[in-house]
Amino acid sequence: MEKIESRDNAKIKEYVKIASSRKRREESGKFVLEGLKLLEEAERSGVPIERVFVTESCLAARPELAGKPGITLISEAVEGKISQSASPQGVYALCKKLDKPENLGKIDSNGSYIALWDLQDPGNVGTVIRCADAMGLSGVILSENCCDLYSLKTLRAAMGSLFRVPVFTVEMEQFLLGTPLTSYAAVVTPDALPATQVPYRGAVAVIGNEGRGLSPEQAAACSAKITIPMRGNAESLNAAMAAAILMWEMARAAL
Amino acid sequence: MEKIESRDNAKIKEYVKIASSRKRREESGKFVLEGLKLLEEAERSGVPIERVFVTESCLAARPELAGKPGITLISEAVEGKISQSASPQGVYALCKKLDKPENLGKIDSNGSYIALWDLQDPGNVGTVIRCADAMGLSGVILSENCCDLYSLKTLRAAMGSLFRVPVFTVEMEQFLLGTPLTSYAAVVTPDALPATQVPYRGAVAVIGNEGRGLSPEQAAACSAKITIPMRGNAESLNAAMAAAILMWEMARAAL
User: Fold this and answer.
1) How far is B247 from chain A (nearest CA, A)?
2) Neighbouring-strand partners of residue B72
3) Does A133 touch chain B (CB under 8 A)?
4) Which among A130, A102, A124 is positioned nearest to A208, based on CA atoms?
5) Residue A220 and residue B99: Cα distance in Å, rounded?
6) Does residue B245 sit at the A interface (CB-CB below 8 Å)?
7) Which alpha helices (DSSP H) does A56-116 contain, by range?
Protein backbone atom coordinates (compact mmCIF):
# COMPACT_ATOMS: atom_id res chain seq x y z
CA MET A 1 0.00 0.00 0.00
CA GLU A 2 1.29 3.40 -0.97
CA LYS A 3 2.27 5.65 1.95
CA ILE A 4 2.53 9.41 1.70
CA GLU A 5 4.89 11.04 4.17
CA SER A 6 5.33 14.42 2.49
CA ARG A 7 2.93 17.28 2.91
CA ASP A 8 4.01 18.41 -0.56
CA ASN A 9 2.86 15.25 -2.32
CA ALA A 10 0.78 16.09 -5.40
CA LYS A 11 -2.21 14.02 -4.24
CA ILE A 12 -2.22 15.81 -0.90
CA LYS A 13 -1.99 19.17 -2.63
CA GLU A 14 -4.97 18.29 -4.82
CA TYR A 15 -6.97 17.20 -1.77
CA VAL A 16 -6.19 20.44 0.08
CA LYS A 17 -7.13 22.59 -2.91
CA ILE A 18 -10.49 20.88 -3.30
CA ALA A 19 -11.08 20.98 0.44
CA SER A 20 -10.39 24.69 0.67
CA SER A 21 -11.84 26.15 -2.52
CA ARG A 22 -15.48 26.24 -3.62
CA LYS A 23 -14.34 27.26 -7.08
CA ARG A 24 -12.06 24.24 -7.31
CA ARG A 25 -14.90 21.97 -6.16
CA GLU A 26 -17.20 23.40 -8.82
CA GLU A 27 -14.63 23.12 -11.61
CA SER A 28 -13.55 19.60 -10.75
CA GLY A 29 -16.93 18.20 -9.65
CA LYS A 30 -15.12 16.75 -6.64
CA PHE A 31 -15.32 17.26 -2.90
CA VAL A 32 -13.71 15.88 0.24
CA LEU A 33 -15.06 14.36 3.42
CA GLU A 34 -13.65 13.28 6.77
CA GLY A 35 -14.56 10.46 9.10
CA LEU A 36 -15.78 6.91 8.77
CA LYS A 37 -19.46 7.70 9.28
CA LEU A 38 -19.66 10.22 6.44
CA LEU A 39 -17.62 7.90 4.20
CA GLU A 40 -20.04 5.05 4.84
CA GLU A 41 -23.04 7.29 4.19
CA ALA A 42 -21.48 8.44 0.92
CA GLU A 43 -20.78 4.86 -0.19
CA ARG A 44 -24.28 3.72 0.74
CA SER A 45 -25.71 6.50 -1.43
CA GLY A 46 -23.55 5.58 -4.40
CA VAL A 47 -21.18 8.56 -4.24
CA PRO A 48 -18.12 7.68 -6.34
CA ILE A 49 -15.10 7.51 -4.02
CA GLU A 50 -11.88 8.32 -5.85
CA ARG A 51 -9.33 7.92 -3.10
CA VAL A 52 -9.31 7.20 0.63
CA PHE A 53 -6.47 8.42 2.85
CA VAL A 54 -5.99 6.70 6.19
CA THR A 55 -3.48 6.95 9.04
CA GLU A 56 -1.67 3.82 10.16
CA SER A 57 -3.29 3.86 13.60
CA CYS A 58 -6.74 4.18 12.04
CA LEU A 59 -6.04 1.32 9.60
CA ALA A 60 -4.86 -0.86 12.49
CA ALA A 61 -8.19 -0.22 14.27
CA ARG A 62 -10.25 -0.67 11.08
CA PRO A 63 -8.40 -3.17 8.85
CA GLU A 64 -11.44 -3.40 6.52
CA LEU A 65 -10.49 0.06 5.24
CA ALA A 66 -7.73 -1.65 3.22
CA GLY A 67 -10.34 -2.56 0.61
CA LYS A 68 -11.46 1.02 -0.05
CA PRO A 69 -10.89 2.64 -3.47
CA GLY A 70 -7.42 4.12 -3.91
CA ILE A 71 -6.57 3.43 -0.28
CA THR A 72 -3.42 5.33 0.67
CA LEU A 73 -1.59 5.55 3.98
CA ILE A 74 -0.68 8.98 5.29
CA SER A 75 1.68 10.06 8.05
CA GLU A 76 0.46 12.08 11.02
CA ALA A 77 2.18 15.15 9.61
CA VAL A 78 0.14 14.79 6.41
CA GLU A 79 -3.03 14.30 8.44
CA GLY A 80 -2.21 17.53 10.27
CA LYS A 81 -2.18 19.28 6.90
CA ILE A 82 -5.45 17.92 5.55
CA SER A 83 -7.69 17.59 8.61
CA GLN A 84 -10.30 20.27 9.23
CA SER A 85 -11.25 18.79 12.61
CA ALA A 86 -10.23 19.61 16.14
CA SER A 87 -10.16 15.86 16.79
CA PRO A 88 -9.02 14.18 13.54
CA GLN A 89 -10.54 10.79 12.83
CA GLY A 90 -7.86 9.34 10.61
CA VAL A 91 -9.99 8.82 7.46
CA TYR A 92 -10.26 11.24 4.53
CA ALA A 93 -11.84 10.76 1.14
CA LEU A 94 -11.74 12.50 -2.20
CA CYS A 95 -15.14 11.98 -3.85
CA LYS A 96 -17.01 12.85 -7.01
CA LYS A 97 -20.23 14.77 -6.67
CA LEU A 98 -23.30 12.70 -7.34
CA ASP A 99 -25.22 13.66 -10.44
CA LYS A 100 -27.97 15.16 -8.32
CA PRO A 101 -31.34 15.51 -10.04
CA GLU A 102 -30.90 19.21 -10.62
CA ASN A 103 -33.07 19.14 -13.68
CA LEU A 104 -36.10 21.16 -12.69
CA GLY A 105 -38.24 18.76 -14.72
CA LYS A 106 -37.80 16.45 -11.74
CA ILE A 107 -39.70 18.76 -9.42
CA ASP A 108 -42.82 16.89 -8.27
CA SER A 109 -45.75 19.25 -8.68
CA ASN A 110 -47.55 17.45 -5.82
CA GLY A 111 -44.48 17.43 -3.58
CA SER A 112 -43.45 19.54 -0.59
CA TYR A 113 -40.20 21.52 -0.73
CA ILE A 114 -38.18 23.94 1.33
CA ALA A 115 -36.27 26.75 -0.42
CA LEU A 116 -33.33 28.65 1.06
CA TRP A 117 -32.77 32.07 -0.45
CA ASP A 118 -29.16 33.21 0.13
CA LEU A 119 -28.48 31.38 3.36
CA GLN A 120 -24.83 31.86 4.22
CA ASP A 121 -24.19 29.61 7.20
CA PRO A 122 -23.07 26.09 6.21
CA GLY A 123 -24.35 24.75 9.53
CA ASN A 124 -27.82 26.11 8.78
CA VAL A 125 -27.91 24.76 5.22
CA GLY A 126 -26.64 21.35 6.35
CA THR A 127 -29.04 21.02 9.26
CA VAL A 128 -31.99 22.03 7.05
CA ILE A 129 -31.06 19.29 4.57
CA ARG A 130 -30.85 16.77 7.43
CA CYS A 131 -34.26 17.88 8.69
CA ALA A 132 -35.77 17.75 5.17
CA ASP A 133 -34.56 14.15 4.96
CA ALA A 134 -36.07 13.29 8.36
CA MET A 135 -39.38 14.90 7.43
CA GLY A 136 -39.58 13.10 4.11
CA LEU A 137 -39.71 16.29 2.06
CA SER A 138 -39.50 16.01 -1.72
CA GLY A 139 -36.38 18.16 -1.89
CA VAL A 140 -34.46 21.30 -1.03
CA ILE A 141 -34.13 24.26 -3.37
CA LEU A 142 -31.12 26.54 -2.93
CA SER A 143 -30.51 29.93 -4.50
CA GLU A 144 -27.23 30.27 -6.36
CA ASN A 145 -25.93 32.61 -3.65
CA CYS A 146 -26.30 30.12 -0.82
CA CYS A 147 -23.08 28.86 0.74
CA ASP A 148 -21.48 25.85 -0.91
CA LEU A 149 -23.35 22.59 -0.46
CA TYR A 150 -20.11 20.64 -0.66
CA SER A 151 -18.05 22.36 2.00
CA LEU A 152 -17.11 20.02 4.82
CA LYS A 153 -19.12 22.11 7.30
CA THR A 154 -22.30 21.68 5.27
CA LEU A 155 -21.63 17.97 4.76
CA ARG A 156 -21.09 17.47 8.48
CA ALA A 157 -24.23 19.33 9.50
CA ALA A 158 -26.23 17.35 6.90
CA MET A 159 -24.84 14.07 8.30
CA GLY A 160 -25.23 12.06 5.11
CA SER A 161 -28.64 13.49 4.19
CA LEU A 162 -26.99 15.55 1.47
CA PHE A 163 -26.39 12.33 -0.45
CA ARG A 164 -30.03 11.29 -0.19
CA VAL A 165 -32.20 14.38 -0.52
CA PRO A 166 -32.81 15.88 -3.99
CA VAL A 167 -31.19 19.32 -3.97
CA PHE A 168 -31.82 21.85 -6.74
CA THR A 169 -29.70 24.97 -7.20
CA VAL A 170 -31.60 27.71 -9.01
CA GLU A 171 -31.85 31.40 -9.79
CA MET A 172 -34.55 31.76 -7.15
CA GLU A 173 -36.70 34.54 -8.53
CA GLN A 174 -36.95 32.92 -11.96
CA PHE A 175 -37.65 29.59 -10.34
CA LEU A 176 -40.46 30.97 -8.21
CA LEU A 177 -42.06 32.75 -11.13
CA GLY A 178 -41.96 29.63 -13.30
CA THR A 179 -42.69 26.77 -10.92
CA PRO A 180 -46.08 25.03 -10.74
CA LEU A 181 -45.60 24.84 -6.94
CA THR A 182 -47.44 27.28 -4.68
CA SER A 183 -44.67 29.28 -3.02
CA TYR A 184 -44.96 30.62 0.52
CA ALA A 185 -42.64 33.41 1.65
CA ALA A 186 -41.82 32.93 5.36
CA VAL A 187 -42.04 36.41 6.87
CA VAL A 188 -42.86 38.07 10.19
CA THR A 189 -45.28 40.70 8.88
CA PRO A 190 -48.85 40.77 10.22
CA ASP A 191 -50.44 40.47 6.76
CA ALA A 192 -49.14 36.91 6.36
CA LEU A 193 -51.27 33.77 6.67
CA PRO A 194 -50.64 31.54 9.71
CA ALA A 195 -48.37 28.65 8.69
CA THR A 196 -50.93 26.25 10.19
CA GLN A 197 -53.63 27.29 7.72
CA VAL A 198 -52.25 26.71 4.26
CA PRO A 199 -52.06 23.49 2.20
CA TYR A 200 -48.56 22.11 1.69
CA ARG A 201 -49.19 19.62 -1.11
CA GLY A 202 -47.57 21.00 -4.26
CA ALA A 203 -45.89 23.74 -2.27
CA VAL A 204 -42.54 25.27 -1.41
CA ALA A 205 -41.84 27.31 1.75
CA VAL A 206 -39.18 29.96 1.17
CA ILE A 207 -36.75 31.03 3.92
CA GLY A 208 -34.66 34.21 3.68
CA ASN A 209 -31.09 35.07 4.59
CA GLU A 210 -29.99 34.78 8.26
CA GLY A 211 -29.51 38.50 8.82
CA ARG A 212 -32.07 40.08 6.54
CA GLY A 213 -34.88 37.56 6.09
CA LEU A 214 -36.80 37.93 2.82
CA SER A 215 -36.96 41.41 1.34
CA PRO A 216 -40.39 42.73 0.23
CA GLU A 217 -39.27 42.14 -3.38
CA GLN A 218 -38.29 38.55 -2.61
CA ALA A 219 -41.57 37.94 -0.80
CA ALA A 220 -43.45 39.42 -3.77
CA ALA A 221 -41.95 36.75 -6.04
CA CYS A 222 -43.87 34.14 -4.01
CA SER A 223 -47.54 33.16 -4.34
CA ALA A 224 -48.38 34.13 -0.74
CA LYS A 225 -46.84 35.08 2.59
CA ILE A 226 -46.97 32.82 5.64
CA THR A 227 -45.80 33.31 9.20
CA ILE A 228 -45.18 31.21 12.28
CA PRO A 229 -47.48 32.65 14.95
CA MET A 230 -45.29 33.93 17.80
CA ARG A 231 -46.53 34.77 21.27
CA GLY A 232 -43.33 35.96 22.88
CA ASN A 233 -40.89 38.82 22.67
CA ALA A 234 -38.29 37.66 20.17
CA GLU A 235 -38.76 39.46 16.87
CA SER A 236 -37.96 36.47 14.72
CA LEU A 237 -36.52 32.99 14.67
CA ASN A 238 -33.15 31.75 13.52
CA ALA A 239 -33.48 30.80 9.81
CA ALA A 240 -32.83 27.10 10.39
CA MET A 241 -35.30 26.96 13.29
CA ALA A 242 -38.00 28.61 11.18
CA ALA A 243 -37.25 26.13 8.39
CA ALA A 244 -37.52 23.23 10.87
CA ILE A 245 -40.95 24.36 12.04
CA LEU A 246 -42.25 24.81 8.48
CA MET A 247 -40.87 21.45 7.34
CA TRP A 248 -42.53 19.87 10.36
CA GLU A 249 -45.83 21.59 9.45
CA MET A 250 -45.50 20.08 5.97
CA ALA A 251 -44.87 16.61 7.39
CA ARG A 252 -47.55 17.07 10.06
CA ALA A 253 -50.16 17.96 7.43
CA ALA A 254 -49.47 14.58 5.80
CA LEU A 255 -49.51 12.51 9.02
CA MET B 1 -13.46 60.90 28.87
CA GLU B 2 -10.84 58.36 29.81
CA LYS B 3 -9.01 56.76 26.90
CA ILE B 4 -7.19 53.46 27.13
CA GLU B 5 -4.36 52.99 24.67
CA SER B 6 -2.54 50.12 26.33
CA ARG B 7 -3.51 46.51 25.89
CA ASP B 8 -2.03 45.93 29.36
CA ASN B 9 -4.43 48.29 31.12
CA ALA B 10 -5.96 46.64 34.20
CA LYS B 11 -9.55 47.25 33.03
CA ILE B 12 -8.79 45.64 29.69
CA LYS B 13 -7.16 42.69 31.40
CA GLU B 14 -10.24 42.24 33.60
CA TYR B 15 -12.52 42.39 30.53
CA VAL B 16 -10.46 39.79 28.67
CA LYS B 17 -10.39 37.42 31.65
CA ILE B 18 -14.15 37.57 32.04
CA ALA B 19 -14.66 37.24 28.29
CA SER B 20 -12.46 34.16 28.06
CA SER B 21 -13.17 32.21 31.24
CA ARG B 22 -16.43 30.60 32.33
CA LYS B 23 -14.95 30.14 35.80
CA ARG B 24 -14.18 33.84 36.04
CA ARG B 25 -17.69 34.70 34.88
CA GLU B 26 -19.20 32.42 37.52
CA GLU B 27 -16.97 33.74 40.32
CA SER B 28 -17.50 37.40 39.49
CA GLY B 29 -21.14 37.26 38.38
CA LYS B 30 -20.10 39.35 35.38
CA PHE B 31 -20.07 38.81 31.64
CA VAL B 32 -19.20 40.75 28.50
CA LEU B 33 -21.05 41.56 25.32
CA GLU B 34 -20.23 43.14 21.97
CA GLY B 35 -22.22 45.34 19.65
CA LEU B 36 -24.85 48.04 20.00
CA LYS B 37 -27.85 45.79 19.49
CA LEU B 38 -26.97 43.40 22.30
CA LEU B 39 -26.09 46.35 24.55
CA GLU B 40 -29.48 47.92 23.92
CA GLU B 41 -31.28 44.62 24.56
CA ALA B 42 -29.37 44.23 27.83
CA GLU B 43 -30.25 47.76 28.97
CA ARG B 44 -33.91 47.30 28.02
CA SER B 45 -34.05 44.18 30.18
CA GLY B 46 -32.46 45.92 33.16
CA VAL B 47 -29.07 44.21 32.98
CA PRO B 48 -26.66 46.31 35.11
CA ILE B 49 -23.98 47.73 32.78
CA GLU B 50 -20.72 48.33 34.63
CA ARG B 51 -18.57 49.79 31.87
CA VAL B 52 -18.86 50.47 28.15
CA PHE B 53 -15.75 50.58 25.94
CA VAL B 54 -16.05 52.34 22.62
CA THR B 55 -13.67 53.19 19.79
CA GLU B 56 -13.34 56.81 18.68
CA SER B 57 -14.78 56.11 15.25
CA CYS B 58 -17.79 54.36 16.77
CA LEU B 59 -18.36 57.22 19.22
CA ALA B 60 -18.21 59.70 16.35
CA ALA B 61 -20.95 57.75 14.55
CA ARG B 62 -23.01 57.27 17.74
CA PRO B 63 -22.41 60.31 19.99
CA GLU B 64 -25.25 59.21 22.29
CA LEU B 65 -22.94 56.46 23.57
CA ALA B 66 -21.13 59.17 25.60
CA GLY B 67 -23.89 58.90 28.20
CA LYS B 68 -23.42 55.17 28.85
CA PRO B 69 -22.24 53.93 32.27
CA GLY B 70 -18.45 54.05 32.72
CA ILE B 71 -17.95 55.05 29.10
CA THR B 72 -14.30 54.63 28.15
CA LEU B 73 -12.56 55.23 24.85
CA ILE B 74 -10.29 52.52 23.51
CA SER B 75 -7.69 52.56 20.77
CA GLU B 76 -7.92 50.21 17.80
CA ALA B 77 -5.05 48.17 19.21
CA VAL B 78 -7.07 47.63 22.39
CA GLU B 79 -10.14 46.73 20.35
CA GLY B 80 -8.03 44.16 18.51
CA LYS B 81 -7.26 42.56 21.87
CA ILE B 82 -10.83 42.41 23.22
CA SER B 83 -12.98 41.79 20.15
CA GLN B 84 -14.23 38.24 19.51
CA SER B 85 -15.72 39.21 16.13
CA ALA B 86 -14.42 38.92 12.60
CA SER B 87 -15.93 42.36 11.96
CA PRO B 88 -15.61 44.34 15.22
CA GLN B 89 -18.43 46.75 15.94
CA GLY B 90 -16.61 49.23 18.20
CA VAL B 91 -18.79 48.77 21.33
CA TYR B 92 -18.01 46.43 24.23
CA ALA B 93 -19.66 46.19 27.63
CA LEU B 94 -18.83 44.63 30.96
CA CYS B 95 -22.13 43.67 32.60
CA LYS B 96 -23.43 42.07 35.75
CA LYS B 97 -25.58 38.99 35.39
CA LEU B 98 -29.22 39.57 36.08
CA ASP B 99 -30.54 37.87 39.16
CA LYS B 100 -32.43 35.41 37.02
CA PRO B 101 -35.32 33.64 38.76
CA GLU B 102 -33.35 30.47 39.33
CA ASN B 103 -35.33 29.61 42.40
CA LEU B 104 -37.22 26.47 41.41
CA GLY B 105 -40.17 27.76 43.43
CA LYS B 106 -40.75 30.04 40.45
CA ILE B 107 -41.50 27.14 38.13
CA ASP B 108 -45.12 27.51 36.98
CA SER B 109 -46.78 24.13 37.42
CA ASN B 110 -49.17 25.02 34.55
CA GLY B 111 -46.39 26.33 32.32
CA SER B 112 -44.59 24.85 29.30
CA TYR B 113 -40.80 24.43 29.46
CA ILE B 114 -37.96 23.10 27.37
CA ALA B 115 -35.04 21.37 29.12
CA LEU B 116 -31.58 20.88 27.63
CA TRP B 117 -29.61 18.01 29.13
CA ASP B 118 -25.86 18.51 28.56
CA LEU B 119 -26.04 20.47 25.30
CA GLN B 120 -22.51 21.57 24.44
CA ASP B 121 -22.90 23.90 21.47
CA PRO B 122 -23.36 27.56 22.47
CA GLY B 123 -25.11 28.24 19.16
CA ASN B 124 -27.67 25.53 19.90
CA VAL B 125 -28.32 26.70 23.47
CA GLY B 126 -28.61 30.33 22.36
CA THR B 127 -30.92 29.63 19.43
CA VAL B 128 -33.17 27.45 21.65
CA ILE B 129 -33.49 30.33 24.13
CA ARG B 130 -34.36 32.70 21.26
CA CYS B 131 -37.00 30.26 20.02
CA ALA B 132 -38.41 29.73 23.54
CA ASP B 133 -38.83 33.51 23.75
CA ALA B 134 -40.57 33.64 20.36
CA MET B 135 -42.88 30.79 21.28
CA GLY B 136 -43.83 32.35 24.61
CA LEU B 137 -42.59 29.39 26.67
CA SER B 138 -42.50 29.73 30.44
CA GLY B 139 -38.77 29.10 30.61
CA VAL B 140 -35.69 27.06 29.73
CA ILE B 141 -34.14 24.52 32.08
CA LEU B 142 -30.45 23.72 31.63
CA SER B 143 -28.46 20.92 33.19
CA GLU B 144 -25.32 22.00 35.04
CA ASN B 145 -23.18 20.42 32.33
CA CYS B 146 -24.57 22.52 29.49
CA CYS B 147 -22.19 25.03 27.94
CA ASP B 148 -22.01 28.45 29.58
CA LEU B 149 -25.08 30.60 29.16
CA TYR B 150 -22.99 33.75 29.36
CA SER B 151 -20.39 33.05 26.69
CA LEU B 152 -20.53 35.58 23.88
CA LYS B 153 -21.47 32.83 21.40
CA THR B 154 -24.54 31.87 23.42
CA LEU B 155 -25.49 35.53 23.94
CA ARG B 156 -25.21 36.20 20.22
CA ALA B 157 -27.27 33.20 19.19
CA ALA B 158 -29.92 34.13 21.79
CA MET B 159 -30.07 37.69 20.41
CA GLY B 160 -31.26 39.35 23.60
CA SER B 161 -33.75 36.61 24.51
CA LEU B 162 -31.37 35.44 27.24
CA PHE B 163 -32.19 38.61 29.17
CA ARG B 164 -35.93 38.01 28.89
CA VAL B 165 -36.57 34.28 29.22
CA PRO B 166 -36.48 32.67 32.69
CA VAL B 167 -33.58 30.23 32.67
CA PHE B 168 -33.06 27.67 35.43
CA THR B 169 -29.82 25.74 35.89
CA VAL B 170 -30.37 22.46 37.70
CA GLU B 171 -29.04 19.01 38.49
CA MET B 172 -31.33 17.54 35.84
CA GLU B 173 -32.11 14.10 37.22
CA GLN B 174 -33.00 15.48 40.66
CA PHE B 175 -35.05 18.21 39.03
CA LEU B 176 -37.04 15.75 36.92
CA LEU B 177 -37.71 13.45 39.83
CA GLY B 178 -38.94 16.32 41.99
CA THR B 179 -40.80 18.62 39.61
CA PRO B 180 -44.61 18.75 39.46
CA LEU B 181 -44.28 19.15 35.66
CA THR B 182 -44.92 16.17 33.40
CA SER B 183 -41.58 15.52 31.73
CA TYR B 184 -41.26 14.19 28.18
CA ALA B 185 -37.98 12.65 27.04
CA ALA B 186 -37.46 13.42 23.34
CA VAL B 187 -36.19 10.19 21.81
CA VAL B 188 -36.25 8.33 18.50
CA THR B 189 -37.31 4.91 19.82
CA PRO B 190 -40.52 3.32 18.48
CA ASP B 191 -42.09 2.92 21.95
CA ALA B 192 -42.40 6.71 22.35
CA LEU B 193 -45.66 8.65 22.04
CA PRO B 194 -46.05 10.94 19.00
CA ALA B 195 -45.22 14.52 20.03
CA THR B 196 -48.55 15.60 18.54
CA GLN B 197 -50.54 13.51 21.00
CA VAL B 198 -49.54 14.65 24.46
CA PRO B 199 -50.73 17.64 26.54
CA TYR B 200 -48.16 20.38 27.05
CA ARG B 201 -49.75 22.37 29.84
CA GLY B 202 -47.69 21.80 32.99
CA ALA B 203 -45.02 20.02 30.98
CA VAL B 204 -41.34 20.05 30.12
CA ALA B 205 -39.84 18.52 26.97
CA VAL B 206 -36.31 17.22 27.53
CA ILE B 207 -33.67 17.29 24.77
CA GLY B 208 -30.42 15.31 25.02
CA ASN B 209 -26.82 16.03 24.09
CA GLU B 210 -25.97 16.75 20.43
CA GLY B 211 -23.95 13.59 19.86
CA ARG B 212 -25.59 11.07 22.13
CA GLY B 213 -29.20 12.17 22.60
CA LEU B 214 -30.78 11.01 25.86
CA SER B 215 -29.45 7.77 27.34
CA PRO B 216 -32.00 5.14 28.45
CA GLU B 217 -31.23 6.14 32.06
CA GLN B 218 -31.86 9.80 31.30
CA ALA B 219 -35.10 8.99 29.51
CA ALA B 220 -36.17 6.84 32.47
CA ALA B 221 -35.93 9.89 34.73
CA CYS B 222 -38.78 11.46 32.72
CA SER B 223 -42.53 10.79 33.05
CA ALA B 224 -42.89 9.56 29.46
CA LYS B 225 -41.10 9.34 26.11
CA ILE B 226 -42.16 11.33 23.06
CA THR B 227 -40.90 11.38 19.51
CA ILE B 228 -41.25 13.57 16.43
CA PRO B 229 -42.73 11.28 13.77
CA MET B 230 -40.22 11.04 10.91
CA ARG B 231 -40.99 9.77 7.45
CA GLY B 232 -37.59 10.03 5.84
CA ASN B 233 -34.18 8.47 6.05
CA ALA B 234 -32.30 10.62 8.54
CA GLU B 235 -31.96 8.78 11.84
CA SER B 236 -32.48 11.84 13.98
CA LEU B 237 -32.66 15.61 14.03
CA ASN B 238 -30.13 18.16 15.20
CA ALA B 239 -30.82 18.87 18.89
CA ALA B 240 -31.79 22.51 18.30
CA MET B 241 -34.11 21.58 15.39
CA ALA B 242 -35.84 18.94 17.53
CA ALA B 243 -36.21 21.51 20.31
CA ALA B 244 -37.69 24.03 17.83
CA ILE B 245 -40.31 21.55 16.68
CA LEU B 246 -41.29 20.58 20.23
CA MET B 247 -41.47 24.23 21.37
CA TRP B 248 -43.64 24.94 18.36
CA GLU B 249 -45.90 22.00 19.26
CA MET B 250 -46.24 23.49 22.76
CA ALA B 251 -47.15 26.91 21.34
CA ARG B 252 -49.38 25.37 18.70
CA ALA B 253 -51.35 23.44 21.32
CA ALA B 254 -52.15 26.79 22.96
CA LEU B 255 -53.07 28.65 19.74
Assistant:
1) 9
2) B53
3) yes
4) A124
5) 45
6) yes
7) 56-61, 76-82
